[in-house]
DNA sequence: CATGAATGAGGCTTCATTCAT
DNA sequence: CATGAATGAAGCCTCATTCAT
């Protein structure tokens, strides 16, 4: 989401993206405490270039989060198109946990930065998307009607965090999600 | 668990405990990035004393974790004594989430330090305790037989992380746990 | 004083002047530590353009000084034309102090850059001009004969510096100059 | 003026003083833009030690100023004791200009830092001291009664600045001060 | 043993200057 | 010529750790 009042030069844009990718990697691996210098190295640019594009480390973190959240929103949209409404929400849980390593950044940042970083818009969009999934699932009868968005978001976050920090393997992911899905499903 | 080859003088032991308490507070509030100096201040000792007791910041963190995990183990034992076997596991989930703020340290540390810190013993003990809870619940018929320890631990961790980093209020804690409990319960 | 071996295109010259004006403003307000980038912004040109015209920040500073000194010289000439010879020197003092804010740049630069910047020609010209003022005043009998140019220049500089860094208001300017003028005047 | 709630260890105090001296030198020579690192080198301590004693560069500058101003105040007091009241003020002017190189720091800081640094107490004390000198001189009849403190302070500052940034030699100092003294003296 | 001063590597950020577009 | 992105040295400051008192 580069703010392009003026189109932005080709090379600058390429660097911007390289930096964003490098940052995503680095912060995923080392947590948000990783140094900006390392991001620069991994991106193959000088440290000054990172700061030209993102005047502050927090700006860089914020931008990564925006990107990740945007990607999640589009994942949701894709699922709504390609899956039967009754399973799309479950599929989203599964995807999310499977990608957890990538999502680590999102969660860590939400945790670490907390008050400082603020990207309510992006978060709000994701919530609206997931709400769509939930409603569809309830209409299809695969999720109980007394389940509401907040706990779904909470479970999404929890399970994702858990997967990341706990290092769940595939089998464990499946078994854990099975419990959650059973909990969401119709009462009988 | 002071390494007591030589008994350790009374005042030294008192300092050790003060430091541990202070550290728990400080790291809970500020995250593991908080400075050792602040721990020393809060404990009312000089920085050198902290490093005499815990040669490395990581050692200090590790020791806190051990303490927290030990406390969890004793929580579990207490629940086994005081609660009907069918609900003890659920009670433990509830307790854990409610105390999440305190547990923040545990999780953060697990996340942050990851590979560096390693405290398999303490974790193992907690796992054995929880396994007891699980088996009892299954015997009592309040938890499905095809639920196994790994996913229970996973859910415990996930839900705890979620509660902390998501800042769930009491209502949200209850609703989220309701889903999980439904998922653990008998299939109808 | 653009170095015009080749005449220089009209737009280039306009940029040169814009940069010079901007630089004068910026350095007056923020001191010589202000960034070249800000000069470029204020001038409405790109940073590269500033460095094309002035290969070094020091070059830019030097050029500003030359300009300011040249302006002072022409102020002196004007006073010699428009004022009675007995008061022109005093008038120059007064003008200078009143404009001190503008002159801040000159002085700061002299102070800050010291050895690095060197602009003997321009300073020499100003000295010759002021010498004219001094001689006239002495001929008119308003300044003592045993006062020489060096101390006049020194007082000029001192009073100007003082006015700038001390933030003298009008009343204080007047009272201070009154002392200096009394000191310069005939003995009885 | 170390704030000695607790007496302060001998070595710490020695370092503190070494740093202060080094800083005075460095900032005199290179201006307030000189690097803290250089101060550390000159003082023969590590950079961290400088920051332990003065948490901020501004704190260091402020402390130097306090010290210099305090020394000036004591200079004044000494003059009042050792000199006839009619000449003490003039002697102070002379001393000040002669030491200008040392005082450079004071003035530069006053100029450069302006709003940021604030040490009103120390400045106020100096003003009160100089006021004493002025009154004495007026009582002794060596300074006109219609001269007031503000312009004396202004001239002091101006002449000092001038001496520093202008690099006046002894002869020039004398001639310039002669003019000022004549201006302060009785109207004939 | 406790104290707290000293160390110095490392992090974030700024800015003069260079160079591809 | 102008543009503005890239560079990288350098500055300020923090903090884990060591060591003299």
UniProtKB/TrEMBL annotation, chains A, B, C, D:
Keywords: DNA-binding, Transcription, Transcription regulation. It comes from Catellatospora aurea. This is TetR/AcrR family transcriptional regulator. SUPFAM superfamilies: Homeodomain-like (SSF46689), Tetracyclin repressor-like, C-terminal domain (SSF48498). Residues 13-72 form the HTH tetR-type domain. Pfam families: TetR_C_43, TetR_N. PANTHER family: HTH-TYPE TRANSCRIPTIONAL REGULATOR BETI (PTHR30055:SF234), HTH-TYPE TRANSCRIPTIONAL REGULATOR RUTR (PTHR30055). It comes from the Bacteria.
